[in-house]
Amino acid sequence: KRENRLEYKVVDAFTPYFQYSHGFRAPSVQQLYGYFQRGNQQYIIGNPSLKPETSRNFELGFKGQTADFNYQVTGFVNKYKNFISRRIDRTTDSGYAYFSYANQKDAKIYGFAANGKVKFYNNYHVFASIAYAKGSQTDDLGVYSSMNSTDPLKTSLGFSYETQVWGGKVTWNWTDKRDTKDLNVGANMYNPTKAYSTVDLDFYWKPLKSLTLGAGISNLFDTKYVDWSNISYYYTNFFEANGGVSGVTEANADSFTEPGRTFYVTLRYDF
């Protein structure tokens, strides 16, 4: 990936910038030749005819940083040739779903992202972020469609206490539903996504300069939700037009939900 960046610091709190980059991504070995069974009724099959993906990426934004706050606001447009995407390819009479990979002739993803953090009293901070993206694609037959793989609007808001020895934070996350009218979907597809919010707790302790112990709780209130990024490849007109049936139905939607309340501990040693 090659990048060219132009920025000018007006003051510490305001630096506008523009960035252009050109990217190249070769298909992975799995995407080319893989054969993988996931669960009892899903197969992921490689496509040896895949071409490398190239991209031109444009980013315009501004950022700032002082002793008490930092932030960044960015708008972007990414244009692709031979965009590599995953799709449901076909099913058998027994209901097995076969996934494969394909090149889209042209694709575009655009959106914005912003984040910031403010120190408002001693070691106390407030932080927030927001991100949104939308995409479109054209296949090798010239058929234009929306891109299903982009995520819906996501935001977060949090509060933290941070010292060199210990600290913690609480983060509220909110994700919008993936609206079916914005998708390239078959007429019989069932969309189980809804707007949802979760709360996460994270703590750390540094008994030594190089050693950090961590613990936390993800999804504190045990919210039940479906993450669009994990089911987006089920949704395609190609699948239904070629005799397939929906991989996600009202009856099996619960099997696609994300984990509930999760506890974890971490250990990191810096050499």
What are the main properties of this structure?
2 helices; 14-stranded mixed β-sheet; tonb box; mainly beta; receptor; transmembrane; transport; 4% helix; globular; TonB-dependent receptor-like beta-barrel domain-containing protein; 271 residues
Secondary structure layout:
Layout: E1 2-7, E2 15-25, H1 29-33, E3 35-38, E4 42-45, E5 53-65, E6 69-91, E7 97-121, E8 124-138, E9 144-146, E10 154-162, E11 166-175, E12 196-208, E13 211-218, H2 237-241, E14 262-269
Parallel strand pairs: 4-7
Antiparallel strand pairs: 1-2, 2-5, 3-4, 5-6, 6-7, 7-8, 8-9, 8-10, 10-11, 11-12, 12-13, 13-14
Structural account:
- Belongs to the TonB-dependent receptor family. Hemoglobin/haptoglobin binding protein subfamily.
- One of its GO terms (cellular component) is cell outer membrane.
- Residues 6-220 form the TonB-dependent receptor-like beta-barrel domain.
- It is a multi-pass membrane protein.
- The protein is mostly beta strands and 271 residues long.
- The chain folds into 2 domains: 1-109, no CATH class; 148-271, no CATH class.
- Helix content is 4%, strand content 56%.
- The protein is built from 2 helices and 14 strands.
- The protein has helices at 29-33, 237-241, and strands at 2-7, 15-25, 35-38, 42-45, 53-65, 69-91, 97-121, 124-138, 144-146, 154-162, 166-175, 196-208, 211-218, 262-269.
- Strands 1, 2, 3, 4, 5, 6, 7, 8, 9, 10, 11, 12, 13 and 14 form a 14-stranded mixed sheet that branches.
- The protein is globular, with a radius of gyration of 22 Å.
- Mean pLDDT is 88; it is low at 237-245.
